[in-house]
Write a structure and sequence with these properties.
Shape of chain F: elongated
Low-confidence stretches of chain D: 214-219
Bound molecules: flavin mononucleotide, riboflavin, iron/sulfur cluster, FE2/S2 (inorganic) cluster
Largest interface: C-E, 54 and 62 residues
Number of strands of chain D: 5
Mean pLDDT of chain F: 80
Distance between the termini of chain D: 60 Å
Number of strands of chain F: 4
Order of helices and strands of chain D: HEEEEEHH
Number of helices of chain D: 3
Strand order of the largest sheet of chain F: 1-4
Structural class of chain D: alpha+beta
Strand content of chain F: 5-15%
Distance between the termini of chain F: 79 Å
Oligomer: heterohexamer
Largest sheet of chain F: 2 strands, antiparallel
Helix content of chain F: 25-40%
Helix content of chain D: 25-40%
Radius of gyration of chain D: 24 Å
Structural class of chain F: mainly alpha
Largest sheet of chain D: 5 strands, antiparallel
Chains: A mainly alpha, B alpha/beta, C mainly alpha, D alpha+beta, E mainly alpha, F mainly alpha
C-alpha cells in the first residue's frame, strides 16, 4: 500500500495497446504475402526475414545508444511491421546489401532520427523504398516474372544466391522482366486490347499474379476494417480517387488510354498501399475530413505518376507527398468543438 | 406516461464496464458513529475559512464549525456531537494530497439531538429565504465539483427555463445516486419542485440512464407534478457531464465559456436536490451523504449513509476490506476519481464513492508510449476536441496553441485516455496545461493592473519632482537676489561662508516643512 | 537571420558560428554546386572574391548608408562584382561556368553575403572589413569544399575529378578511392544533399558538445546586474 | 519638407554615383573579356565536335561550315528519320575542299523523354562518333549512354550499314548486336534505333549532303 | 495554352524551385519555423517573385536587349528587386525593423531568396516570352509557397518530437527537407 | 573602347539608379517607422513587476532596451514564458534565462511585521506601485493585491521588518505537473507520478 503510485484519472483503461494493433496488422499481411510468395517464390520470404532481423537490430542499437528502454519498445512490433511492409514492396530479387541500405534508411532516417515510434512525419517504409529506388534503380526495377509467365521460378537455392548477390547458373535475366505497369507504360500505339493480347504478362483484369497479390491485400484490409484497426476513410478515398481518375482517362481503351480502373486497382501496390500504407496513423492525417482529403490526394498523385510521370508506380512517392501535406491538412480540417460556432 | 421525448446524441463517448451491481445488492446502510470525525473546512478556491470553534470546545450535532468569508463561502456543520480534539491540517481526498484545514471531533455517540432549523413552506417562502436556508445548511454540489449551491442558485435567479436534475450517474462503480433514487425518490421529487418554485422555471427534466430501471421506476412512481418529467436515455459515458446531459435532454449546446445558468438552465445532481429538500422541508443541514464502497478488495460492497468526516477506513472495514488484495484506492469513479494514498482520509461532501480495486480491476497504469495519432481519442471525445493535438501541444509546452485548440473546453472526462492504445495519461497533460494557462491569465491581469499602478506612480513622482524643481528655482532666485546684494556690498570670503551656511539652514528648514518628499537632498548641490 | 555578430573570432566564423552550418545561410549554392570538388571550389573562390570586394566597397560607403538606401546599394555592389567575376570566370573556364550555371550570378543574392556585408562591413573600418570579408568567405569556401569532396567521394568513389576545368595543370588530380558496382547516386541528387548536410550539422553538434564539456560553467552572481527602480541605490 | 527633399536628393545621388561607377566597371570588364569568352565558346563547340568527328578527318574549321536542320527544313528525303523537334546545327567536314564527313543532329525518345544526340559520319558512310548532348534518362539506369558515365556509346564507332546489316541494329535482347544495360532496355533500344535511322538518312541524302558547302553559313 | 499550363505545373511540382532546383533554400528554412509566419511569407515572396519577374522581363526586352546591354542584366534585376522589396517593406512595415542599424529579417529573407533573382535569370536563359514568364514565375511562386507552408507545418509537428539532441534544430529540418525532396522526385516527368 | 560603349551602360544604370533612389526615398519619407508601437508590444509581454532585475529601471525601459537590441532573456519574474513570448513576437530564438539577472521563482508579496515597523516611510518611497499604506511614524501595511513582489522595499527598511512571503498557499499553487517527459516508456520514477510535489 505504501508504494502505490498516485496518478491522474482515469484509472481504468480499455485494454488495447500499440503492440496489439501492430500484431493485428502483421496478421493481416499474411494473405497478401502468401500470394506474393506463390507468384514470385522464396525471395519474398527471404526479404521478410532479413528485413525484420535488421530492423530489430537497428532499432535496438539506436535505442541503446539513446539510453531508451530496448525490449519494451521492440515489443510494440512497429519496427517489424515497417520491415515487413518494406519487404513486401521491394522486388524479391533484392541483394542483401540493398535491403540493408533500405531498412537502415527506413528505421534510422525515417523513424529514429525523429524520435522513434509516433514522431516520424514520413512513412518509414516508404521513405526507405523511395531512397532505395533513387539509389539503386537497377536492383529496384529488377522484378521477377510471375509464375505462369516464366517457365520456372527460381528455386530456394537460386533465390538465396540472388539474395547473396552471387552469379547464377542461368543469369538472373532469365527470371526477370518489366512489371505489368511498366510494360503498360510502353504500350505505344497499341490499343489496350491489343496490348493485352501482345504480352503474357497481363491476366484477367490486370497483371498476371498481381491480381492475386492485390486481392490478398484487399482481403487483409477488409479484416482490418472489420477489426476496426483502421477506419474506412483513407482506403475508400484513396481507391475512389484512383478509380475515378483512371475512369476519366480510360479513353475507351484506345492508344492514348492510361488503363482501366480495374487494372489500376489491382496493379502494383494499390491494395497494399490502400489498406496498409496510407493508413499508417502516425504519418497520415487524423481528422475525419482530413483523412478523406489525404486518401484522395494520394490516390490522385498515384494515378498522375502512373499515367504521366517517369515511374511505373507511384505509391511510395505519393504517400510521402501525402505525409508531407498531412500536418497542413490536419491544421485546416479541425472539427468543430462542441459549444463553438462552426 | 407520454410518448418518450426526443433525445439528442452528444458526440463521442465510451461504454466501459459498469461494475454497479456489486454495490446495489442491498439497501443503503447506516453506519455506527465512528469514534472520531475529521471534518474538512475546505472553501471554494482554498481561501482560509472562518473557524468559529476552538479546540476542546464541545459541539452539538448541527452546530456551525466554520463559514466562508464572502457570498460564495460554504458553511460547515458538526456532523455529530462531541468534543473538538484538534483544528489543524489533515490529509483529505484531494488531488494534490496536500493537507487541508480540518476539525477533528471526538464523537459522543450518546448525544443525538440535532440542531435543526425550522421547516419552511417552499410554496410561500420567497427565493431569498430559500437560498439563505440552503446556504445556512451548508449545501454544496454533490455531483462532483462541490460548487456552493446557494451561489449557483443566486446566479440562477435571473431567468431559468428548465431545471435539470442529473441522475445519470454515468461513471462506472458509483451507485450512490441510484441507491438514493431507489429509496428516497420522493424527496428528490420534492427537491425538484422546490427548485422549480425557487427559479420560476416551467419544466424540470430528470435525466437518467436506461441502465437503472429500478431507479427509473421509483422516480416515475414518485413524480406527482406535470412539470416534472423523467427522461431515460441510453447509457454512455459521460452522459452525466453537464453540457452533454443538457444536450441530450434539450438539444442545446452550451456556448463555450458560458455556464448553463447563463443559458436559462439550472442543473443539479440528485444528491444535491435531495439535500435541498431535507434542508427546506426539515431544516436539516448537510451532515451526511451516501457513499458507495465497492471494489474487489471489499467483500461486501454497499452504499452507506455516512456522516461527513467519517474516515474512509472506517467504511471499508464495515465492508470487509482486505488490504492485501488492494491495488488502487480511488475516491469517485474509475474515470474521474482521485487516487488516494491511504484510507485514513475523511468522507467529504463530494465523496460519492470509494473503490478499493484489485489489480485485475484497476491495474496500475502502463508506461506511457508515444502517441501514434490513431485518432481513437478524437472519436470518443464528447466535446469533439482533437485530444492528441492538445497532447502534442501540452507536451511541447506550446500552451497558447493548446488554448487556440480549445483546451479549456475539455471536461477532463478521461474518455480519451481510456481508449488510448499508447496509455498516455492525457488528462494529466491537460490539467497541467490548463493550470499553466490559468497562471498565464492571472499574470496577464496582474501585469495590466501593475502597469497602471506603476504609471500612476511615475506620474506622481514626476509631479512631485516638478514641484520640488519649482521650489528649488524659487530658492535659487532668492539666493541670487541676496548674492547680488552681497556683491554690491563687496563680498568678503566670510560672507560667502556665511551665505552657504544660511543656505544649509534654509534647506533644513524647508526639508522639515516639506515632509515626505525626498527630492530635496539634491537641492543642496544647486 | 540578422544575428551574424560583428565581433566574431576566427574560430567563431570558421567553426563555432559557421554561418553556413549554424545559421543555414547561403544554403542554395551549398546544396546545389557541391556535387564535385571542382564546382564547389570554383563557386567558393568566386564567392570569396565577391565577399572581399563587396566588404571593402560597402565599408568605404558605410557613411552613406541609411535605411532606405541600404538594400539597393548592397545589392548593386554585390551584383556588380558578381557580374565581373562571372565574366572573368567565363574566360578562365567556360566549362566550369556552365557547370555552375545560375549560381555564379546568384552570388549577388547569397544570403550569407547579404547578411555579412550588411552587418560587418558597414560597421567596420576598411582593414577589418577586408579581413572579415576574407574570413567569412573563406569559412564558406571551406564548407563548400568539404561538402563537395564528401559528396563526390560518396557518389562516385573519386575526388578531384575534372580539376583541370579550374586549374589547367590539375588534369591528373583525380583520385579514385573506391569503385562500387552501383554508385550511391542518392548523395549526388538534391535529396541526398539535404540529408547529408543534415548529418554534417548533427556531427558538428556532437563535436561541439564534446568540446564544450570540459569547460566549467562560469559562476556568476545571480541578480548581480540589478538596478533600483525607485529610491536610491 | 526641404529637409526631406534634401535626404531624397542625397539618396538618389549616392545611388546614382555608385551606379555610374558600377556601370563603368562592368562595361570595362565586359569589354575586356568579350573576346576571351567568344574564344572559349568556340573552343568548347570544337571540342564537342572533335569527339564525333576526329580532327584528322578535316582541315577546315567546322564552325564555319554550319548549316541548320529542323523539323521543317525542306529539301531532304525522309527528314523525320532524324526525329528532330527543333532547329539544330549540322556541320560539314572538308578535306582538301572535298566533303570528308558530316555531323548530324539527332533525337531519340528514351525512357524519360527526348535524348539529344550528335552523330558524325564519314563520307564513306562509317560512323566516326556518337555523343549524347542532353537526356533525362533515369540516373543509374538509362544514363549509361552518357560518355561521362559509361563508354557504351563508343560501340557505334566505325560501324556502317554494310558491316552491320539491318537485323543487327538492335539490342541483344531483340536479337541485335548491341548490349543493353542491366535493367534498362528502352534507352539503348532508342539510341540504337536513332543511330540506325541517321545512317539511313545519310544514305538517302548522300548526294545532297556531300555537296553541302553551298549551304554553309557565314560565321 | 497547354504549354503554358505545363510550364506552370512543371515549375510548381516536377521542377520545384526549392526542392529540385535548390533555389531559395535559405529563406525556406528561415521562414518555416511557424505555420502562420510561413503563410505570410509565402504570400509576400509570391508577389515579389511574380512582380520582379515581369518587371525584369520588360526591362530586359525593352531596355537591355535593344542596346545590347545583356551584361548589365544582373545589376538591373538586382536593383529592381531591391526597389520592390524595399518599397513594400518600407511602406507596409508593420513590425518596425528590430535592430535599427541592420536590415530587418523579413527584408533579408525576401531579398536573399535566390529563387526571385533566379527566376528572372532563368526567364532569359529559357528565352521565355512575356506569358511564358508570367506562368513560369507563377508556377515557381506556387511551388515555393507550397513547400514553405508544408515544411512549416511539418516543423511545427517536429517541435514536439523526441528528436535526438544533436539533430534538434536545423539538422532535422534539413533531413525533413531531404525527405520532402525525395518525395518530389517522384513527380519527375509530370510536365 | 569607344566612348558610346561606355556611355550607354552608364546612362542606363544612372537612370535606373535615379528612379530606384527616388522611389525608395519617397517611400522612406512616407513611412517613418513608428517605434513606440513595438515598445508597447514588447512591454505588453513583460510581467510589470517593476523590479529592475533586468538591469533597467522598470519594465518599460527594458522594453525600450529590447527594441534597441538588448537580449530578451533578462527578466526573471517573467521567466521562460516571457522569453518565449518575446521570441515569438520578435522572430528570434528563445534563450534560457540569463542567470546573472536572477532566477525564476514563485510569486511573492511583501509582508510587514507591523509590530516591528517604526514608520520610517522608506518602504513607501521604494514601492514602484504604491502598494504600501501608512504615514510617517505609523506602522505600514502592504496591500496584498497590489504588491508586485518586486522586493524593492525590503532593502531600504532600517529594521528589516519586511518579509517576502509566497503570494499563494501551497494548496492554491498546486496543480498537476506535466507527466514525465522522458519518452517513450522510460521506466516511471515513482516520484514523477506521485503527487504532492508542487510544480
Ligand atoms: C455564476 C456561476 C459561477 C460558477 N463558477 C464556477 C466555478 O468557478 N467553478 C466551478 O467548478 N463551478 C462553477 N459553477 C458551477 C457550474 O455551473 C457547474 O455546475 C459546476 O462547475 C459543476 O461542474 P461539474 O460538471 O464539473 O461537476 C458556477 C456556477 C455559476 C452559476
Ligand atoms: C465527465 C463528467 C461526468 C459527470 N457525470 C455526472 C453524473 O453522472 N452525475 C452527476 O450528477 N454529475 C455528473 N457530473 C457533474 C455534472 O457535470 C455537474 O457538475 C453536476 O450535475 C452539477 O450538479 P451539482 O452542482 O449538484 O453538483 C459529471 C461531470 C463530468 C465532467
Ligand atoms: C523508375 C524506373 C526508371 C527506369 N528508367 C529507365 C531508363 O531510364 N531507361 C531504360 O531503358 N529503362 C528504364 N527503366 C526500366 C524499363 O522500364 C524496363 O523495365 C527495362 O528497360 C527492362 O526492359 P526489358 O524487360 O525489355 O529488359 C526504368 C524502370 C523504372 C521502374
Ligand atoms: C494501420 C497501420 C499502418 C501502418 N503502416 C505502416 C507503413 O506503411 N509503414 C511503416 O513503416 N509502418 C507502418 N505502420 C507501423 C507504424 O505506425 C510505423 O512504423 C510508424 O510510422 C513508426 O513511427 C503502420 C501501423 C498501423 C497501425
Ligand atoms: S488515442 Fe492515444 S495514441 Fe491514439 S491518437 Fe489519441 S493520444 Fe494518440
Ligand atoms: S478528457 Fe477532454 S479531451 Fe479527453 S475526451 Fe474528455 S473532454 Fe475530450
Ligand atoms: S526584470 Fe522583468 S519585471 Fe523586473 S523590471 Fe525588468 S522587465 Fe520588469
Ligand atoms: S510592497 Fe514591496 S514588494 Fe510589493 S510592490 Fe511594493 S516595493 Fe514591491
Ligand atoms: S515597514 Fe515601513 S520602514 Fe519598515
Amino acid at each position: 500500500m505504501n508504494d502505490v503510485m498516485l496518478t491522474s484519472s482515469p484509472h481504468s483503461h480499455q485494454g488495447t495497446s500499440v503492440g496489439q494493433i501492430m500484431r493485428q496488422l502483421l496478421l493481416a499481411c499474411v494473405p497478401g504475402a502468401a500470394a506474393l510468395w506463390f507468384c514470385f517464390g522464396w525471395g519474398v520470404v527471404i526479404n521478410i526475414a532479413w528485413f525484420s532481423a535488421l530492423a530489430l537490430l537497428l532499432e535496438a542499437s539506436i535505442l541503446k545508444l539513446r539510453k531508451r528502454p530496448v525490449l519494451a519498445t521492440l515489443r510494440d512490433c512497429s519496427a517489424v511491421l515497417t520491415a515487413v511492409l518494406l519487404a513486401l514492396s521491394v522486388p524479391p530479387t533484392l541483394p542483401w546489401w540493398a535491403g540493408l541500405t533500405g531498412i537502415a534508411f527506413a528505421i534510422v532516417v525515417g523513424k529514429q532520427l525523429y524520435g522513434g515510434l509516433g514522431f516520424n512525419p514520413f512513412n518509414p517504409a516508404m521513405a526507405g523504398y523511395a531512397a532505395l529506388l533513387i539509389a539503386f534503380p537497377v536492383q529496384m526495377t529488377r522484378w521477377l516474372l510471375p509464375d505462369g509467365v516464366t517457365p520456372a521460378l527460381p528455386s530456394l537455392a537460386d533465390s538465396l544466391s540472388i539474395f547473396l548477390d552471387r552469379e547464377l547458373l542461368q543469369g538472373i535475366d532469365a527470371y526477370t522482366g518489366a512489371t505489368p505497369l511498366d510494360k503498360f507504360r510502353q504500350h505505344g500505339e497499341q490499343l489496350v486490347s491489343e496490348f493485352w493480347q501482345s504480352t503474357p504478362l497481363m491476366g484477367q483484369w490486370s497483371g498476371r499474379g498481381w491480381e492475386w497479390i492485390n486481392a490478398g491485400f484487399l482481403f487483409g484490409g477488409l479484416y482490418l476494417l472489420y477489426k476496426r484497426i483502421i477506419s474506412w476513410h483513407i482506403p475508400v478515398a484513396f481507391i475512389a480517387a484512383l478509380a475515378l481518375l483512371a475512369a476519366l482517362f480510360y479513353d475507351g481503351g484506345n492508344a492514348h488510354s492510361h488503363g482501366s480502373p480495374l487494372m489500376h486497382l489491382f496493379a502494383g501496390g494499390t491494395m497494399l498501399g490502400a489498406f496498409f500504407i496510407t493508413t499508417d496513423p502516425v504519418t497520415a492525417a487524423t481528422t475525419l475530413r482530413g483523412k478523406v482529403i489525404y486518401g484522395a490526394l494520394i490516390g490522385g498523385v498515384v494515378f498522375l505518376i502512373r499515367a504521366f510521370g517517369n515511374y511505373p508506380d507511384g505509391i511510395a512517392f505519393a504517400v510521402l507527398l501525402g505525409n508531407a501535406a498531412a500536418p497542413l491538412i490536419d491544421a485546416l480540417t479541425r472539427p468543430r468543438t462542441f459549444g463553438h460556432p462552426q | 406516461m407520454s410518448a418518450s421525448p426526443r433525445l439528442w446524441n452528444f458526440p463521442g463517448g465510451i461504454a466501459p464496464l459498469a461494475h454497479k451491481a456489486e454495490s446495489l445488492r442491498g439497501p443503503i446502510r447506516r453506519t455506527t458513529l465512528p469514534p472520531q470525525l475529521i471534518v474538512p473546512l475546505t472553501q471554494p478556491g482554498h481561501v482560509a475559512p472562518n473557524v468559529l470553534v476552538q479546540t476542546g470546545e464541545r459541539v452539538r450535532k448541527g452546530q456551525i464549525l466554520a463559514c466562508g468569508d464572502d457570498a460564495t463561502g460554504v458553511t460547515v456543520h458538526a456532523p455529530a456531537a462531541g468534543v473538538i480534539n484538534a483544528i489543524g491540517e489533515q490529509s483529505v481526498a484531494n488531488m494534490s494530497a496536500l493537507p487541508e484545514l480540518c476539525v477533528i471531533i471526538d464523537t459522543d455517540a450518546a448525544e443525538t439531538t440535532w440542531d435543526k432549523l425550522p421547516p419552511l413552506d417552499y410554496r410561500t417562502a420567497d427565493a431569498d429565504t430559500l437560498i439563505a436556508r440552503i446556504a445556512d445548511c451548508g449545501i454544496s454540489g454533490l455531483g462532483g465539483a462541490g460548487f456552493p449551491t446557494h451561489a449557483k442558485l443566486r446566479a440562477a435567479l435571473r431567468k431559468i427555463d428548465i431545471v435539470i436534475v442529473n441522475a445519470a450517474e454515468c461513471e462506472p462503480w458509483i451507485t450512490a445516486d441510484e441507491a438514493l433514487l431507489r429509496e428516497r425518490a420522493a424527496d428528490v421529487v420534492a427537491g425538484s419542485k422546490i427548485l422549480l418554485q425557487l427559479t420560476g422555471a416551467l419544466r424540470c427534466l430528470i435525466g437518467i440512464e436506461d441502465s437503472k430501471p429500478q431507479a427509473v421506476a421509483a422516480l416515475q412512481a414518485a413524480v406527482d407534478d406535470p412539470r416534472l418529467k423523467v427522461v431515460v436515455f441510453p447509457a454512455r459515458y459521460p452522459s452525466g457531464a453537464e453540457a452533454q446531459l443538457i444536450y441530450t435532454l434539450t438539444g442545446k449546446e452550451m456556448p463555450s465559456g458560458t455556464r448553463p445558468v447563463h443559458n436559462g438552465i439550472l442543473c443539479h445532481n440528485v444528491g444535491t436536490v435531495y439535500a435541498i429538500a431535507r434542508a427546506v422541508l426539515h431544516g436539516e443541514a448537510l451532515l451526511s451523504r451516501i457513499v458507495t464502497i465497492t471494489g474487489g478488495a471489499v467483500s461486501d460492497a454497499a452504499n452507506y449513509e455516512a456522516s461527513i468526516g467519517t474516515p474512509i477506513s472506517f467504511l471499508l472495514q464495515q465492508s470487509g476490506f482486505d488490504e492485501r488484495s488492494l491495488s488502487q484506492l480511488v475516491c469517485g469513479g474509475s474515470l474521474m476519481g482521485i487516487a488516494l494514498p491511504h484510507a485514513q482520509l475523511p468522507v467529504a461532501k463530494t465523496t460519492n464513492c470509494v473503490i478499493a480495486a484489485t489489480r485485475s480491476e484497476l491495474p496500475p497504469p502502463q508506461p506511457e508510449q508515444a502517441c501514434i495519432r490513431c485518432g481513437d481519442c478524437a472519436d470518443v471525445c464528447p466535446v469533439q476536441l482533437v485530444p492528441q493535438q492538445l497532447y502534442w501541444f501540452a507536451r511541447s509546452q506550446q500552451f497558447d496553441q493548446a488554448r487556440a485548440n480549445h483546451l479549456n473546453d475539455c471536461i477532463e472526462c478521461g474518455a480519451c485516455a481510456w481508449v488510448c492504445p499508447s496509455h498516455i495519461p492525457l488528462v494529466q497533460y491537460y490539467r497541467a496545461a490548463k493550470a499553466e494557462l490559468a497562471e498565464q491569465d492571472t499574470k496577464q491581469q496582474h501585469a495590466v493592473h501593475w502597469r497602471q499602478r506603476f504609471e500612476a506612480h511615475q506620474h506622481r513622482m514626476a509631479l512631485e519632482q516638478a514641484q520640488a524643481e519649482q521650489r528649488r528655482a524659487e530658492r535659487a532666485a532668492l539666493a541670487a537676489q541676496k548674492q547680488e546684494q552681497a556683491v554690491k556690498a563687496g563680498p568678503s570670503p566670510q560672507d560667502i561662508v556665511a551665505a552657504a551656511l544660511a543656505r544649509v539652514q534654509a534647506k533644513k528648514a524647508a526639508q522639515a516643512a516639506a515632509k515626505p518628499s525626498s527630492d530635496d537632498d539634491n537641492g543642496a548641490s544647486s | 537571420m540578422s544575428n551574424s555578430l560583428p565581433h566574431d573570432t576566427t574560430s567563431g566564423v570558421l567553426w563555432r558560428r559557421n554561418p553556413a552550418l549554424v545559421q543555414l545561410l547561403g544554403l542554395s549554392p551549398l546544396l546545389a554546386v557541391t556535387t564535385s570538388v571542382v564546382t564547389a571550389l570554383g563557386l567558393g573562390l568566386a564567392t570569396l572574391a565577391v565577399f572581399t570586394a563587396a566588404s571593402v566597397t560597402i565599408s568605404l560607403l558605410h557613411r552613406r548608408l541609411n535605411d532606405a538606401l541600404r538594400l539597393p546599394l548592397i545589392l548593386l555592389v554585390n551584383a556588380t562584382f558578381a557580374t565581373c567575376i562571372g565574366l572573368m570566370l567565363q574566360v578562365w573556364s567556360l566549362h566550369l561556368y556552365q557547370a555552375l550555371g545560375l549560381y555564379v550570378p546568384l552570388i549577388a543574392a547569397n544570403s550569407l553575403l547579404l547578411v555579412h556585408v550588411d552587418s560587418i562591413a558597414s560597421e567596420r573600418p576598411l582593414l577589418t572589413a577586408t579581413a572579415a570579408g576574407l574570413l567569412t568567405g573563406f569559412g564558406y569556401l571551406l564548407v563548400l569544399l568539404v561538402f563537395g569532396a564528401l559528396r563526390e567521394l560518396l557518389g562516385t568513389g573519386a575526388v578531384f575529378a575534372n580539376m583541370e576545368q579550374l586549374l589547367p595543370f590539375a588534369a591528373s588530380w583525380k583520385l579514385q578511392i573506391f569503385t562500387a558496382e552501383s554508385p550511391f547516386l542518392l548523395v549526388l541528387l538534391p535529396p541526398g544533399a539535404f540529408l547529408l548536410l543534415g548529418f554534417l550539422v548533427a556531427l558538428k553538434n556532437v563535436i561541439d558538445r564534446q568540446l564544450a564539456r570540459p569547460v566549467a560553467n562560469e559562476t556568476s552572481m545571480p541578480g548581480g546586474k540589478r538596478v533600483r527602480v525607485t529610491g536610491k541605490i | 519638407m526641404s529637409n526631406a527633399n534634401n535626404t531624397l536628393l542625397r539618396y538618389c545621388l549616392t545611388l546614382a554615383g555608385v551606379a555610374v561607377i558600377a556601370a563603368i566597371l562592368v562595361a570595362v570588364v565586359h569589354r575586356a573579356t568579350q573576346q576571351g569568352i567568344a574564344d572559349q565558346q568556340q573552343d568548347n563547340e570544337r571540342q564537342a565536335l572533335n569527339q564525333v568527328l576526329p580532327a584528322t578527318l578535316h582541315d577546315n574549321d567546322l564552325l564555319t561550315t554550319r548549316f541548320t536542320l529542323g523539323p521543317d527544313t525542306q529539301g531532304y528525303e525522309q527528314l523525320p528519320l532524324l526525329g528532330l523537334s527543333a532547329g539544330r546545327k549540322g556541320y560539314i567536314a572538308l578535306r582538301n575542299d572535298a566533303v570528308s564527313g558530316i555531323v548530324l543532329p539527332l533525337e531519340a525518345t528514351g525512357y524519360g523523354g527526348p535524348i539529344v544526340l550528335l552523330i558524325g559520319i564519314a563520307a564513306d558512310g562509317k560512323i566516326t562518333g556518337v555523343r549524347v548532348q542532353q537526356h533525362a534518362e533515369t540516373p543509374g539506369l538509362g544514363d549509361s549512354i552518357d560518355i561521362h558515365v559509361s563508354p557504351w556509346i563508343t560501340v557505334f564507332d566505325h560501324r556502317n550499314l554494310d558491316d552491320t546489316p539491318e537485323p543487327l541494329w538492335h539490342v541483344k535482347q531483340d536479337g541485335g548486336d548491341f548490349d543493353q544495360f542491366t535493367g534498362a532496355t528502352i534507352t539503348p533500344r532508342a539510341v540504337v534505333g536513332a543511330v540506325y535511322n541517321a545512317l539511313q538518312f545519310f544514305e538517302l541524302n548522300k548526294d545532297k549532303l556531300l555537296k553541302q558547302p553551298a549551304n554553309k553559313e557565314p560565321r | 495554352m497547354s504549354h503554358l499550363l505545363l510550364l506552370l505545373i512543371g515549375a510548381a511540382l516536377a521542377n520545384n524551385v526549392a526542392l529540385t532546383q535548390l533555389l531559395g533554400v535559405g529563406p525556406l528554412f528561415a521562414a518555416s519555423t511557424q505555420l502562420a509566419t510561413s503563410i505570410r511569407f509565402a504570400v509576400a515572396t509570391s508577389c515579389l517573385l511574380i512582380a520582379s519577374s515581369l518587371c525584369n522581363w520588360l526591362l530586359g526586352h525593352l531596355l537591355l536587349a535593344p542596346f545590347g546591354l545583356e551584361f548589365l542584366r544582373l545589376i538591373v534585376y538586382a536593383l529592381v528587386i531591391a526597389l520592390i522589396v524595399g518599397g513594400t517593406a518600407l511602406v507596409m512595415q508593420r513590425k518596425a525593423s528590430l535592430l535599427q542599424h541592420r536590415l530587418s529579417p523579413t527584408l533579408l529573407l525576401l531579398t536573399a531568396n535566390s529563387a526571385v533573382l533566379g527566376v528572372a535569370l532563368l526567364d532569359d536563359d529559357k528565352a521565355h516570352d512575356f506569358f511564358d514568364s508570367l506562368f513560369y514565375s507563377t508556377g515557381t511562386a506556387l511551388g515555393f509557397s507550397l513547400v514553405l507552408v508544408v515544411l512549416a507545418a511539418l516543423r511545427e509537428r517536429l517541435a514536439a518530437s523526441d528528436v535526438p539532441v544533436p539533430f534538434r534544430g536545423s539538422a532535422i529540418a534539413l533531413i525533413t527537407a531531404g525527405l520532402l525532396s525525395l518525395a518530389f522526385m517522384g513527380l519527375a516527368g509530370l510536365a | 573602347m569607344t566612348m558610346t560603349a561606355l556611355l550607354i551602360p552608364v546612362v542606363v544604370l544612372l537612370m535606373l539608379a535615379l528612379v530606384v533612389g527616388a522611389l525608395l526615398g519617397v517611400a522612406a519619407n512616407k513611412a517613418h517607422t513608428e517605434d513606440t508601437a513595438l515598445v508597447a508590444r514588447i512591454d505588453a509581454l513583460l510581467p510589470q513587476t517593476q523590479c529592475g532585475q533586468c538591469g533597467n529601471p522598470g519594465c518599460k525601459p527594458y522594453a525600450q532596451a529590447i527594441a534597441a537590441g538588448a537580449p530578451i532573456n533578462r527578466c526573471p519574474p517573467g521567466g521562460a514564458a516571457t522569453i518565449a513570448a518575446l521570441a515569438r513576437l520578435l522572430g528570434v530564438q528563445t534563450l534560457p534565462l540569463d542567470p546573472t539577472h536572477g532566477s525564476e521563482s514563485i510569486r511573492k508579496v511583501a509582508f510587514i511585521r507591523e509590530a516591528e515597523c517604526i514608520g520610517c516611510t522608506k518602504c513607501i518611497q521604494a514601492c514602484p506601485v504604491d502598494a504600501i499604506l501608512g504615514s510617517a511614524k505609523h506602522m505600514h501595511t502592504v496591500i496584498e493585491s497590489e504588491c508586485t513582489g518586486c522586493d524593492l522595499c525590503v532593502e531600504p527598511c532600517p529594521v528589516d521588518c519586511i518579509d517576502m512571503l509566497p503570494a499563494q498557499s501551497a494548496l492554491q499553487r498546486w496543480h498537476w505537473p506535466l507527466p514525465n517527459q522522458r519518452m517513450p516508456g522510460i521506466a516511471l520514477i515513482a516520484s514523477d507520478r506521485t503527487h504532492g510535489a508542487p510544480a
